[in-house]
Amino acid sequence: MAIDDEIHFVAGTPIGPAGSWDYSAVTAMSLRSVPEIFLGDQQSILRGDQYRLWLRWFFEGLVSPLAIARNAALERLDVYAVVLKRIELLYPMVDSPRRRDLTEKITDHIFAEVERIRLSVARDFADKATKLALLAERTPPRCYICGFAFSKGAQDAFLRVKGREAVRLPKLVDVFRPRLLDRDISIEIEHVVPVAAGGHGLDNLRLACGWCNKHKSSKVSLYEASHVPPKIPGFHVGAHQIHELPHPFWTIRILALRGQCRHSAGCDRTAKTAELFISLLDWQGSPNPMNLTVFCQEHDPIAADRFHAASKVAELWGERR
Fold first, then answer.
1. What global pTM score does this model have?
2. Which tens digits make up the pLDDT trace of 262-310?
3. Which residues is 190 bridged to in the sheet?
4. Which residues contact 194 (CB under 8 A, 6 or more apart)?
5. What is the distance between the alpha carbons of residues 129 and 143, in angstroms, rounded to a whole number?
6. What are the extents of the domains in the chain?
7. How far is CA 105 from the centre of its chain?
8. Is 187 helix (H, G, I), strand (E, B) or coil?
């Protein structure tokens, strides 16, 4: 495999903080194409999240959806008129039909956002019939993100069954996805598209474990989660010494989008049929999005080592927070 491009890219691309406020250094870096091999298995997710963010910034730079939404007198044609003026400035030499075609498509996106803001949809609360329908979607009921199977106690608590037994927290927990609180193993109604982003309707509801639900929150992109590496001295997962923990949202984003065991020999287990676990591709590296992968329990190379005493894991994550 030829690596000349990679050598040239690494040699001429400083990534340290010294150049982060230097316009020349930032501009020089922008002119370089990142070798695809560096992005690894997650390149589609990394690029997709990045491009969606750039596109949103471009649209909002043409006209503020919030400003339009706050003026009830403004409608789609008003958005179209503003966008058209900007497109005509950006593409003065392009023929009118194509400028108008681009304007129409951009206006569709912007005004959809305007309508979401104006709608200000209240959170959809599920009644008992909806809860039962969601529980019946698969047996046993599972978190739609990670495939965690809900206990009978968690199901009874979800349905508010009288005289139910208390849900017991496990003594051993996954160091990478620590369910340490009662909420973490409970069943919660999750909005796939966040309410803040306009998600509404019963078809937008799923069952999620409390851990996934609280860490997913309203974020929709890997780049919305910043990571400050914790200090973890001398902790081992089996033969592997780890120095930092994966950001919870990165874990959730990779699990939700992959949704299936990534074993090299192939595996058809998904979050609908089995619990999925996050792991590292290369244990010498950091647990960032490029270095995370997904396994089912059967194919998990650290299945016997990822679970530790809850008190120890709580200490590790307490240091991180």
1. 0.85
2. 999 999 999 999 999 999 999 999 999 999 999 999 999 999 999 999 9
3. 206
4. 217, 218, 219, 220
5. 19
6. 56-120, 128-218, 223-320
7. 27
8. strand
